[in-house]
Amino acid sequence: MPLSVLTLVRDRTAYLHGLLAALAAAPDPPAEVVVAVCGGDDPRPGAPATPFPVRFLDVDSGERIAYSPARNACARAAGSERLLFLDADCVPLPGALAAFDRALAAEDALAIGEVLYLPPGVDVDPADVGALRRAGRPHPARPVPPAEGWERSDRYGLAWGLAVAVRKTTFLALGGFDEGYGGYAGEDTDFAEAARRAGVPLVVVGGAAVAHRHHDVFEPPVQQLTATVANAQRFRDKWGWWPMGGWLAGFAQLGLVEWTEDAERAVVLREPTPAEVEAARRTSARPFRT
After folding, report:
1. pLDDT 10s digits, 108-127
2. What is the per-residue pLDDT across 161-191, written as a single tens digit (0 to 9) for each?
3. Cis bond leading into 2, ω under 30°?
4. Fewer CB within 10 Å: C terminus or N terminus of the chain?
5. What DSSP letter does each residue of 209-260 carry, written as one string?
């Protein structure tokens, strides 16, 4: 049975519909797609027809998407033993799902592939692999995948929730995503660290490329200051080191947080002003932070 694709959505209905259309047209479609609807617009109306079932789960969510509970709910509901967590703003290139599926069938591992970041204004045509590859920019911090097959890596911090695959039994045995993380940031790094300490290998899969569609971001994410700092602190208390160091350093430079790399606590000094939030918004492609 092919793998299950698990995603979540809140007010990005067009992206979700684009993902479903791409999967429907792919030569390697999934067994199913499980969608956690985390508030916002109802994505069911207008969803494209697919040759595989699409199941929608309504997940309680507050001001921010409850990433960990939503992803855990999708995993529990999935019918396949092999899972691919894939954000709705990502489109897998043809062959990506099959490559992830082969890797998980052969090896009990966390599996990651290549992520190609599309610049603003690029229309996503899942059938035009060459155009996607020409337009997409690989993140310089991510390993170059092998031409085919997969190879092991020790860079667990790159098992980002936007595109990571794992066996369902392994995911559940590790406890899933820690639901003590509120909102966005840190929950995927936490899961990867749990996998590392449990001896679950990390593999980088060749041919498992996804294109990431551009949208506005905040650098650093000052609009989620309190949640991001709280998640970083939870991780530091749990594992003994700081994740998201670049973001924390950015907060500190703005005078929002008292923090250094050797500190045991990160202290929020004040909330950002509306002007600081707007100044952090990035509406165009920017160089990657490595």
Report:
1. 999 999 999 988 877 666 66
2. 999 999 999 999 999 999 999 877 899 999 9
3. no
4. C
5. EEEEPP--EESS-GGGHHHHHHHHHHHHHHHSS-S-HHHHHHHHHTTSEE--
